[in-house]
Amino acid sequence: MIQFLLNQTLRTEHTLDPNLTVLNYLREHLHKPGTKEGCASGDCGACTVVVGELHTDAQGLERLRYRSLNSCLTFVSALHGKQLISVEDLKHQGQLHSVQQAMVDCHGSQCGFCTPGFVMSLFALQKNSTGQPDGHQAHEALAGNLCRCTGYRPILAAAEQACSGQQQDQFDTGQSATIALLKTITPTQTGELNSGDKRCLLPMTISDLAALYESQPQARLLAGGTDLALEVTQFHRPLPVMIYVGNVAEMKLVEHFADRLEIGAAVSLTDAYNTLSAEYPDFGELLQRFASLQIRNQGTLGGNIGNASPIGDSPPLLIALGAKLVLRKGQTLRTLAIEDYFIDYRVTARQEGEFIEKIIIPRADPRHAFRAYKISKRLDDDISAVCAAFNLQVDNGVVTGARVAFGGMAAIAKRAAACEAALLGADWNSASIERACTALATDFTPLSDFRASKEYRLLSAQNLLRKYFIELQTPHLETRVTAYV
Protein backbone atom coordinates (compact mmCIF):
# COMPACT_ATOMS: atom_id res chain seq x y z
CA MET A 1 0.00 0.00 0.00
CA ILE A 2 0.95 3.65 -0.30
CA GLN A 3 -0.10 6.54 1.95
CA PHE A 4 -0.02 10.24 1.22
CA LEU A 5 -1.87 13.45 1.98
CA LEU A 6 -4.29 14.86 -0.56
CA ASN A 7 -4.01 18.42 0.72
CA GLN A 8 -4.86 17.62 4.36
CA THR A 9 -6.75 14.37 3.77
CA LEU A 10 -4.96 11.08 4.37
CA ARG A 11 -5.23 8.68 1.43
CA THR A 12 -4.36 4.99 1.69
CA GLU A 13 -4.26 3.06 -1.58
CA HIS A 14 -3.71 -0.70 -1.86
CA THR A 15 -4.63 -1.82 -5.36
CA LEU A 16 -4.10 1.10 -7.71
CA ASP A 17 -2.48 0.29 -11.03
CA PRO A 18 1.21 1.28 -10.56
CA ASN A 19 1.15 2.56 -14.17
CA LEU A 20 -1.46 5.14 -13.16
CA THR A 21 -0.19 8.70 -13.38
CA VAL A 22 -1.03 11.34 -10.80
CA LEU A 23 -2.83 13.24 -13.56
CA ASN A 24 -5.22 10.38 -14.27
CA TYR A 25 -5.58 9.60 -10.57
CA LEU A 26 -6.80 13.15 -9.94
CA ARG A 27 -9.10 13.30 -12.93
CA GLU A 28 -10.49 9.76 -13.14
CA HIS A 29 -10.37 8.48 -9.56
CA LEU A 30 -10.90 11.65 -7.53
CA HIS A 31 -12.92 13.55 -10.16
CA LYS A 32 -10.75 16.63 -9.82
CA PRO A 33 -10.63 17.93 -13.41
CA GLY A 34 -8.78 21.17 -12.71
CA THR A 35 -5.46 19.55 -13.61
CA LYS A 36 -5.32 19.32 -17.41
CA GLU A 37 -3.65 17.03 -19.91
CA GLY A 38 -2.03 18.98 -22.69
CA CYS A 39 0.76 16.84 -24.07
CA ALA A 40 1.27 13.84 -21.73
CA SER A 41 5.01 14.26 -22.21
CA GLY A 42 6.02 16.96 -19.73
CA ASP A 43 6.35 19.74 -22.29
CA CYS A 44 3.36 22.04 -21.75
CA GLY A 45 2.89 22.29 -17.98
CA ALA A 46 -0.92 22.18 -18.08
CA CYS A 47 -0.81 19.22 -15.68
CA THR A 48 1.41 20.92 -13.08
CA VAL A 49 0.77 20.01 -9.45
CA VAL A 50 2.79 20.73 -6.32
CA VAL A 51 4.15 18.09 -3.96
CA GLY A 52 5.15 18.88 -0.38
CA GLU A 53 7.56 16.72 1.57
CA LEU A 54 9.49 16.84 4.81
CA HIS A 55 12.89 18.45 4.44
CA THR A 56 15.64 19.40 6.87
CA ASP A 57 17.16 22.74 5.89
CA ALA A 58 20.75 23.94 6.25
CA GLN A 59 20.05 25.10 9.80
CA GLY A 60 18.80 21.66 10.78
CA LEU A 61 15.16 22.80 10.96
CA GLU A 62 12.44 20.50 9.72
CA ARG A 63 10.06 22.15 7.30
CA LEU A 64 7.92 21.50 4.26
CA ARG A 65 9.49 21.77 0.85
CA TYR A 66 7.12 22.46 -2.05
CA ARG A 67 8.02 21.58 -5.63
CA SER A 68 6.14 21.74 -8.91
CA LEU A 69 5.87 18.51 -10.91
CA ASN A 70 4.36 17.31 -14.15
CA SER A 71 1.57 15.03 -12.99
CA CYS A 72 1.39 13.42 -16.45
CA LEU A 73 4.85 11.92 -15.87
CA THR A 74 4.51 11.08 -12.18
CA PHE A 75 3.31 7.63 -11.20
CA VAL A 76 1.15 7.46 -8.07
CA SER A 77 3.79 5.41 -6.22
CA ALA A 78 5.98 8.54 -6.08
CA LEU A 79 3.43 10.13 -3.72
CA HIS A 80 4.19 7.68 -0.90
CA GLY A 81 4.80 9.68 2.30
CA LYS A 82 4.23 13.08 0.64
CA GLN A 83 1.55 15.74 0.26
CA LEU A 84 -0.20 16.32 -3.07
CA ILE A 85 -1.66 19.76 -3.79
CA SER A 86 -3.78 20.37 -6.90
CA VAL A 87 -5.37 23.58 -8.13
CA GLU A 88 -8.67 22.72 -6.37
CA ASP A 89 -6.90 22.94 -3.01
CA LEU A 90 -5.88 26.60 -3.30
CA LYS A 91 -9.22 28.33 -2.87
CA HIS A 92 -9.95 28.60 0.87
CA GLN A 93 -13.15 29.57 2.69
CA GLY A 94 -14.62 30.94 -0.49
CA GLN A 95 -11.60 33.14 -1.27
CA LEU A 96 -9.23 32.74 -4.19
CA HIS A 97 -5.62 32.11 -3.27
CA SER A 98 -3.35 35.10 -3.81
CA VAL A 99 -1.74 33.50 -6.89
CA GLN A 100 -5.17 32.90 -8.41
CA GLN A 101 -6.22 36.46 -7.60
CA ALA A 102 -3.03 37.77 -9.20
CA MET A 103 -3.89 35.95 -12.43
CA VAL A 104 -7.33 37.58 -12.37
CA ASP A 105 -6.01 41.05 -11.52
CA CYS A 106 -3.30 40.94 -14.19
CA HIS A 107 -5.51 39.42 -16.89
CA GLY A 108 -3.26 36.37 -17.15
CA SER A 109 -5.90 33.99 -18.47
CA GLN A 110 -7.98 33.78 -21.63
CA CYS A 111 -9.22 30.34 -22.70
CA GLY A 112 -8.15 29.04 -19.28
CA PHE A 113 -6.92 25.59 -20.31
CA CYS A 114 -3.31 26.24 -19.30
CA THR A 115 -4.22 28.46 -16.35
CA PRO A 116 -4.33 25.78 -13.59
CA GLY A 117 -0.77 24.76 -14.49
CA PHE A 118 0.43 28.35 -14.39
CA VAL A 119 -1.32 28.87 -11.07
CA MET A 120 0.42 25.85 -9.55
CA SER A 121 3.83 26.96 -10.86
CA LEU A 122 3.18 30.41 -9.38
CA PHE A 123 2.15 28.79 -6.10
CA ALA A 124 5.46 26.87 -5.96
CA LEU A 125 7.36 30.05 -6.87
CA GLN A 126 5.62 31.93 -4.08
CA LYS A 127 6.36 29.19 -1.54
CA ASN A 128 10.03 29.17 -2.49
CA SER A 129 10.49 32.96 -2.61
CA THR A 130 11.90 34.81 0.38
CA GLY A 131 11.04 38.14 -1.18
CA GLN A 132 10.06 39.53 -4.54
CA PRO A 133 11.58 37.21 -7.18
CA ASP A 134 13.73 38.69 -9.88
CA GLY A 135 12.87 38.23 -13.52
CA HIS A 136 15.15 35.24 -13.86
CA GLN A 137 13.43 33.33 -11.05
CA ALA A 138 9.99 34.02 -12.49
CA HIS A 139 11.05 32.97 -15.98
CA GLU A 140 12.63 29.80 -14.59
CA ALA A 141 9.50 28.91 -12.62
CA LEU A 142 7.24 29.43 -15.64
CA ALA A 143 9.48 28.15 -18.45
CA GLY A 144 7.76 24.77 -18.35
CA ASN A 145 4.27 26.24 -18.82
CA LEU A 146 3.05 27.07 -22.31
CA CYS A 147 0.18 29.42 -23.18
CA ARG A 148 -1.24 29.91 -26.66
CA CYS A 149 -3.56 32.83 -25.89
CA THR A 150 -2.25 35.62 -23.73
CA GLY A 151 1.42 36.05 -24.30
CA TYR A 152 3.44 35.95 -21.13
CA ARG A 153 3.65 39.57 -20.00
CA PRO A 154 0.47 39.51 -17.88
CA ILE A 155 1.45 36.15 -16.39
CA LEU A 156 4.84 37.52 -15.40
CA ALA A 157 3.02 40.51 -13.90
CA ALA A 158 0.93 38.04 -11.90
CA ALA A 159 4.14 36.41 -10.66
CA GLU A 160 5.41 39.79 -9.48
CA GLN A 161 2.14 40.57 -7.69
CA ALA A 162 1.80 37.12 -6.10
CA CYS A 163 5.31 37.16 -4.67
CA SER A 164 5.37 40.78 -3.51
CA GLY A 165 4.55 41.10 0.15
CA GLN A 166 2.58 37.88 0.19
CA GLN A 167 0.50 37.14 3.26
CA GLN A 168 0.17 33.85 5.07
CA ASP A 169 -2.21 31.35 3.51
CA GLN A 170 -3.83 28.18 4.81
CA PHE A 171 -0.71 26.17 3.96
CA ASP A 172 1.46 28.40 6.14
CA THR A 173 -0.90 28.41 9.10
CA GLY A 174 -1.41 24.66 8.82
CA GLN A 175 2.23 23.76 8.30
CA SER A 176 2.76 22.30 11.78
CA ALA A 177 -0.29 20.08 11.41
CA THR A 178 0.85 18.97 7.96
CA ILE A 179 4.32 18.11 9.23
CA ALA A 180 2.79 16.10 12.08
CA LEU A 181 0.56 14.20 9.66
CA LEU A 182 3.43 13.48 7.28
CA LYS A 183 5.50 12.12 10.15
CA THR A 184 2.79 9.56 10.88
CA ILE A 185 3.03 8.19 7.34
CA THR A 186 6.78 8.44 6.80
CA PRO A 187 7.73 5.13 5.15
CA THR A 188 9.94 2.89 7.29
CA GLN A 189 10.04 -0.36 5.31
CA THR A 190 9.66 -1.65 1.78
CA GLY A 191 6.18 -1.00 0.46
CA GLU A 192 4.31 -2.33 -2.53
CA LEU A 193 1.53 -1.13 -4.79
CA ASN A 194 -0.06 -4.15 -6.42
CA SER A 195 -2.98 -4.23 -8.84
CA GLY A 196 -2.72 -7.97 -9.48
CA ASP A 197 -1.12 -7.86 -12.91
CA LYS A 198 1.26 -5.00 -12.15
CA ARG A 199 3.32 -4.10 -9.13
CA CYS A 200 5.67 -1.40 -7.91
CA LEU A 201 8.06 -2.08 -5.05
CA LEU A 202 9.22 0.79 -2.85
CA PRO A 203 12.43 -0.07 -0.95
CA MET A 204 13.78 2.22 1.76
CA THR A 205 17.46 1.17 1.91
CA ILE A 206 20.19 0.52 -0.62
CA SER A 207 20.51 -3.07 0.60
CA ASP A 208 16.80 -3.73 0.10
CA LEU A 209 16.93 -2.17 -3.36
CA ALA A 210 19.94 -4.27 -4.33
CA ALA A 211 18.31 -7.47 -3.12
CA LEU A 212 15.03 -6.73 -4.89
CA TYR A 213 16.68 -5.84 -8.18
CA GLU A 214 19.05 -8.81 -8.10
CA SER A 215 16.10 -11.15 -7.60
CA GLN A 216 13.92 -9.35 -10.18
CA PRO A 217 16.28 -7.99 -12.86
CA GLN A 218 13.38 -7.73 -15.31
CA ALA A 219 11.91 -4.91 -13.21
CA ARG A 220 12.21 -1.34 -14.44
CA LEU A 221 13.91 1.07 -12.07
CA LEU A 222 11.84 4.18 -11.46
CA ALA A 223 13.40 7.40 -10.18
CA GLY A 224 11.91 10.65 -11.52
CA GLY A 225 10.11 8.82 -14.30
CA THR A 226 10.42 11.72 -16.74
CA ASP A 227 11.68 9.34 -19.42
CA LEU A 228 10.26 6.00 -18.27
CA ALA A 229 6.70 7.32 -17.94
CA LEU A 230 6.66 8.10 -21.66
CA GLU A 231 6.50 4.37 -22.35
CA VAL A 232 3.06 4.42 -20.73
CA THR A 233 1.75 7.84 -21.74
CA GLN A 234 3.12 8.01 -25.30
CA PHE A 235 3.76 4.42 -26.41
CA HIS A 236 1.04 2.71 -24.33
CA ARG A 237 3.38 -0.02 -23.16
CA PRO A 238 2.51 -1.42 -19.73
CA LEU A 239 5.27 -1.73 -17.14
CA PRO A 240 4.51 -4.96 -15.23
CA VAL A 241 7.14 -4.55 -12.49
CA MET A 242 8.80 -1.36 -11.28
CA ILE A 243 11.10 -0.63 -8.36
CA TYR A 244 10.87 2.96 -7.13
CA VAL A 245 14.22 4.28 -5.84
CA GLY A 246 13.04 7.72 -4.71
CA ASN A 247 12.79 6.70 -1.04
CA VAL A 248 16.31 5.25 -0.79
CA ALA A 249 18.11 7.80 1.37
CA GLU A 250 21.63 6.59 0.48
CA MET A 251 20.97 7.36 -3.18
CA LYS A 252 19.85 10.92 -2.44
CA LEU A 253 23.06 12.07 -0.80
CA VAL A 254 25.37 14.79 -2.12
CA GLU A 255 28.78 14.51 -0.45
CA HIS A 256 31.83 16.75 -0.73
CA PHE A 257 35.37 15.41 -0.37
CA ALA A 258 38.72 17.11 -0.86
CA ASP A 259 39.25 15.54 -4.29
CA ARG A 260 35.75 14.64 -5.46
CA LEU A 261 32.00 15.08 -5.30
CA GLU A 262 29.76 12.06 -4.82
CA ILE A 263 26.19 12.48 -6.02
CA GLY A 264 23.63 9.75 -5.43
CA ALA A 265 21.93 8.44 -8.55
CA ALA A 266 18.49 9.40 -7.20
CA VAL A 267 19.45 13.04 -6.51
CA SER A 268 17.17 15.28 -8.56
CA LEU A 269 18.70 17.67 -11.05
CA THR A 270 17.33 20.53 -8.95
CA ASP A 271 19.16 19.24 -5.88
CA ALA A 272 22.36 18.61 -7.85
CA TYR A 273 22.32 22.14 -9.25
CA ASN A 274 23.82 24.06 -6.32
CA THR A 275 26.74 21.67 -5.95
CA LEU A 276 27.53 21.38 -9.65
CA SER A 277 27.08 25.07 -10.44
CA ALA A 278 29.36 26.08 -7.56
CA GLU A 279 32.06 23.70 -8.73
CA TYR A 280 31.57 24.06 -12.49
CA PRO A 281 29.57 27.17 -13.49
CA ASP A 282 29.05 25.90 -17.04
CA PHE A 283 27.50 22.70 -15.68
CA GLY A 284 25.10 24.83 -13.68
CA GLU A 285 24.18 26.96 -16.66
CA LEU A 286 23.48 23.89 -18.75
CA LEU A 287 21.28 22.41 -16.01
CA GLN A 288 19.18 25.56 -16.10
CA ARG A 289 18.50 24.75 -19.75
CA PHE A 290 17.76 21.11 -18.97
CA ALA A 291 14.04 20.90 -19.79
CA SER A 292 11.79 22.75 -17.32
CA LEU A 293 11.86 23.25 -13.58
CA GLN A 294 9.08 20.68 -13.23
CA ILE A 295 11.26 18.12 -15.02
CA ARG A 296 14.38 19.04 -13.05
CA ASN A 297 12.43 18.65 -9.82
CA GLN A 298 11.70 15.04 -10.80
CA GLY A 299 14.48 13.94 -13.15
CA THR A 300 17.67 12.57 -11.62
CA LEU A 301 21.32 12.72 -12.59
CA GLY A 302 21.50 8.91 -12.44
CA GLY A 303 18.46 8.57 -14.66
CA ASN A 304 19.89 10.92 -17.28
CA ILE A 305 22.94 8.67 -17.45
CA GLY A 306 21.14 5.37 -17.09
CA ASN A 307 18.77 5.80 -20.01
CA ALA A 308 21.83 6.10 -22.30
CA SER A 309 20.28 8.61 -24.67
CA PRO A 310 22.80 9.97 -27.20
CA ILE A 311 21.31 13.44 -26.63
CA GLY A 312 21.25 13.36 -22.83
CA ASP A 313 22.77 16.64 -21.67
CA SER A 314 24.80 15.54 -18.66
CA PRO A 315 26.89 12.61 -20.09
CA PRO A 316 29.15 14.71 -22.38
CA LEU A 317 29.95 17.03 -19.48
CA LEU A 318 30.61 14.18 -17.08
CA ILE A 319 32.81 12.43 -19.63
CA ALA A 320 34.87 15.58 -20.16
CA LEU A 321 35.28 15.91 -16.40
CA GLY A 322 36.49 12.32 -16.03
CA ALA A 323 33.55 11.25 -13.86
CA LYS A 324 33.08 7.68 -12.67
CA LEU A 325 30.06 5.57 -11.80
CA VAL A 326 29.67 3.30 -8.81
CA LEU A 327 27.59 0.31 -9.90
CA ARG A 328 26.01 -2.12 -7.44
CA LYS A 329 24.75 -5.66 -7.89
CA GLY A 330 23.62 -7.19 -4.62
CA GLN A 331 26.46 -6.40 -2.23
CA THR A 332 29.07 -6.17 -4.99
CA LEU A 333 30.33 -2.74 -6.02
CA ARG A 334 32.45 -1.76 -8.98
CA THR A 335 33.64 1.59 -10.28
CA LEU A 336 33.56 2.37 -13.98
CA ALA A 337 34.65 5.42 -15.96
CA ILE A 338 31.48 6.96 -17.34
CA GLU A 339 32.88 6.96 -20.87
CA ASP A 340 33.07 3.15 -20.65
CA TYR A 341 29.46 2.85 -19.53
CA PHE A 342 28.03 3.65 -22.97
CA ILE A 343 28.47 0.83 -25.50
CA ASP A 344 26.00 1.50 -28.31
CA TYR A 345 22.64 3.15 -28.83
CA ARG A 346 20.76 2.56 -25.55
CA VAL A 347 23.23 -0.24 -24.75
CA THR A 348 25.38 0.07 -21.63
CA ALA A 349 27.95 -1.90 -19.65
CA ARG A 350 25.45 -2.41 -16.83
CA GLN A 351 25.03 -6.08 -15.93
CA GLU A 352 21.71 -7.77 -15.25
CA GLY A 353 20.48 -6.79 -11.80
CA GLU A 354 23.07 -4.00 -11.52
CA PHE A 355 22.24 -0.32 -11.05
CA ILE A 356 24.00 3.04 -10.73
CA GLU A 357 24.40 3.87 -7.06
CA LYS A 358 26.26 7.17 -7.35
CA ILE A 359 28.33 9.39 -9.59
CA ILE A 360 31.86 10.48 -8.63
CA ILE A 361 33.02 13.79 -10.11
CA PRO A 362 36.54 15.22 -9.59
CA ARG A 363 36.70 18.60 -7.86
CA ALA A 364 37.49 21.54 -10.11
CA ASP A 365 41.18 21.99 -10.88
CA PRO A 366 42.22 25.61 -11.56
CA ARG A 367 44.73 24.32 -14.12
CA HIS A 368 41.87 22.96 -16.26
CA ALA A 369 39.55 25.10 -18.37
CA PHE A 370 36.12 23.46 -18.48
CA ARG A 371 33.39 24.81 -20.74
CA ALA A 372 30.10 23.37 -21.96
CA TYR A 373 27.84 24.39 -24.84
CA LYS A 374 24.38 23.32 -25.91
CA ILE A 375 22.89 23.99 -29.32
CA SER A 376 19.12 23.65 -29.57
CA LYS A 377 16.23 25.25 -31.40
CA ARG A 378 14.94 26.96 -28.23
CA LEU A 379 16.74 28.31 -25.20
CA ASP A 380 14.44 26.62 -22.69
CA ASP A 381 12.82 23.22 -22.55
CA ASP A 382 14.46 21.72 -25.62
CA ILE A 383 16.67 18.77 -26.54
CA SER A 384 20.20 19.26 -27.81
CA ALA A 385 21.08 19.05 -31.45
CA VAL A 386 24.73 19.13 -30.30
CA CYS A 387 26.10 19.25 -26.77
CA ALA A 388 29.84 19.83 -26.35
CA ALA A 389 32.15 19.78 -23.34
CA PHE A 390 35.83 20.77 -23.34
CA ASN A 391 38.26 20.30 -20.48
CA LEU A 392 41.81 21.26 -21.42
CA GLN A 393 44.99 22.04 -19.53
CA VAL A 394 47.45 24.44 -21.10
CA ASP A 395 50.94 24.94 -19.61
CA ASN A 396 53.34 27.50 -21.00
CA GLY A 397 51.39 27.73 -24.24
CA VAL A 398 51.25 23.96 -24.81
CA VAL A 399 48.23 21.67 -24.40
CA THR A 400 49.18 19.14 -21.75
CA GLY A 401 45.76 17.63 -21.08
CA ALA A 402 42.67 17.27 -23.23
CA ARG A 403 39.24 15.75 -22.68
CA VAL A 404 36.69 16.59 -25.34
CA ALA A 405 33.22 15.00 -25.44
CA PHE A 406 30.07 15.42 -27.49
CA GLY A 407 26.44 14.40 -27.40
CA GLY A 408 24.18 14.32 -30.45
CA MET A 409 27.08 13.39 -32.73
CA ALA A 410 26.92 9.59 -32.50
CA ALA A 411 24.83 6.72 -31.14
CA ILE A 412 26.31 7.46 -27.71
CA ALA A 413 27.84 10.39 -25.90
CA LYS A 414 31.59 9.91 -26.31
CA ARG A 415 35.05 11.43 -26.36
CA ALA A 416 36.56 12.86 -29.53
CA ALA A 417 39.75 10.80 -29.53
CA ALA A 418 41.27 12.12 -32.76
CA CYS A 419 40.53 15.71 -31.77
CA GLU A 420 42.18 15.15 -28.38
CA ALA A 421 45.22 13.57 -30.05
CA ALA A 422 45.56 16.57 -32.37
CA LEU A 423 45.51 18.92 -29.39
CA LEU A 424 47.78 17.07 -26.97
CA GLY A 425 51.32 18.40 -27.10
CA ALA A 426 50.37 21.08 -29.62
CA ASP A 427 50.89 24.79 -29.24
CA TRP A 428 47.82 26.60 -27.99
CA ASN A 429 47.06 28.62 -31.11
CA SER A 430 44.52 28.89 -33.89
CA ALA A 431 46.51 26.62 -36.21
CA SER A 432 46.32 23.77 -33.70
CA ILE A 433 42.62 24.41 -33.21
CA GLU A 434 42.04 24.13 -36.97
CA ARG A 435 43.90 20.81 -37.07
CA ALA A 436 41.76 19.59 -34.18
CA CYS A 437 38.62 20.73 -36.01
CA THR A 438 39.67 18.69 -39.03
CA ALA A 439 40.24 15.70 -36.75
CA LEU A 440 36.66 15.95 -35.49
CA ALA A 441 35.49 14.81 -38.93
CA THR A 442 37.20 11.46 -38.27
CA ASP A 443 35.77 11.17 -34.77
CA PHE A 444 32.11 11.44 -35.75
CA THR A 445 29.77 10.67 -38.62
CA PRO A 446 26.58 12.28 -37.31
CA LEU A 447 23.11 11.56 -38.61
CA SER A 448 20.59 13.97 -40.09
CA ASP A 449 17.24 14.28 -38.38
CA PHE A 450 14.57 16.90 -37.72
CA ARG A 451 16.82 18.69 -35.22
CA ALA A 452 19.79 19.21 -37.54
CA SER A 453 21.51 17.84 -40.62
CA LYS A 454 24.73 15.87 -40.34
CA GLU A 455 26.61 18.71 -42.04
CA TYR A 456 25.24 21.23 -39.57
CA ARG A 457 26.14 19.03 -36.62
CA LEU A 458 29.74 18.57 -37.73
CA LEU A 459 30.22 22.24 -38.53
CA SER A 460 28.65 23.18 -35.20
CA ALA A 461 30.97 20.85 -33.31
CA GLN A 462 33.96 22.39 -35.04
CA ASN A 463 32.71 25.91 -34.42
CA LEU A 464 32.16 25.17 -30.74
CA LEU A 465 35.82 24.17 -30.45
CA ARG A 466 36.76 27.46 -32.13
CA LYS A 467 34.40 29.28 -29.77
CA TYR A 468 36.06 27.60 -26.78
CA PHE A 469 39.50 28.76 -27.98
CA ILE A 470 38.31 32.34 -28.57
CA GLU A 471 36.61 32.55 -25.20
CA LEU A 472 39.70 31.39 -23.34
CA GLN A 473 41.72 34.02 -25.18
CA THR A 474 39.13 36.75 -24.50
CA PRO A 475 37.06 35.74 -21.43
CA HIS A 476 34.78 38.79 -21.68
CA LEU A 477 33.26 37.27 -24.84
CA GLU A 478 31.97 34.18 -23.04
CA THR A 479 28.37 33.23 -23.75
CA ARG A 480 28.74 29.66 -22.53
CA VAL A 481 25.72 27.45 -23.18
CA THR A 482 23.40 29.88 -24.91
CA ALA A 483 23.93 28.78 -28.52
CA TYR A 484 21.05 28.01 -30.88
CA VAL A 485 20.44 26.16 -34.12
Overview of the molecule:
- With 485 residues, the protein is α+β, with helices and mostly antiparallel strands.
- 32% of the residues lie in helices and 23% in strands.
- The strands form 5 sheets. Strands 2-1-5-3-4 form a 5-stranded mixed sheet. A 5-stranded antiparallel sheet has the order 10-11-16-12-13. It has a 5-stranded mixed sheet with strand order 20-19-18-17-21, with helices on both faces.
- Strand 14 and strand 15 form a beta hairpin.
- Annotated CATH architecture of the largest domain: 2-Layer Sandwich
Biggest sheet record? 5 strands, mixed
Shape: globular
What is the top-level CATH class of the largest domain? Alpha Beta
Number of strands: 21
Tell me the radius of gyration: 23 Å
CATH homology-level superfamily of the largest domain: CO dehydrogenase flavoprotein, C-terminal domain
Strand order of the largest sheet: 2-1-5-3-4
* Overall tally of domains: 3
CATH topology assignment of the largest domain: Enolase-like, domain 1
* Uncertain runs: none
Helix content: 25-40%
Figure out the total of helices.
Answer: 17
Strand content: 15-25%
The overall pLDDT, averaged over residues, is: 94
Using brief descriptors, characterize the structure shown.
485 residues, alpha+beta, Ubiquitin-like (UB roll), Uridine Diphospho-n-acetylenolpyruvylglucosamine Reductase, domain 2, 3 domains, five-stranded mixed sheet, five-stranded antiparallel sheet, 21 strands
Q: What's the gist of this structure?
A:
With 485 residues, the chain is of the alpha+beta class. 32% of the residues lie in helices and 23% in strands.
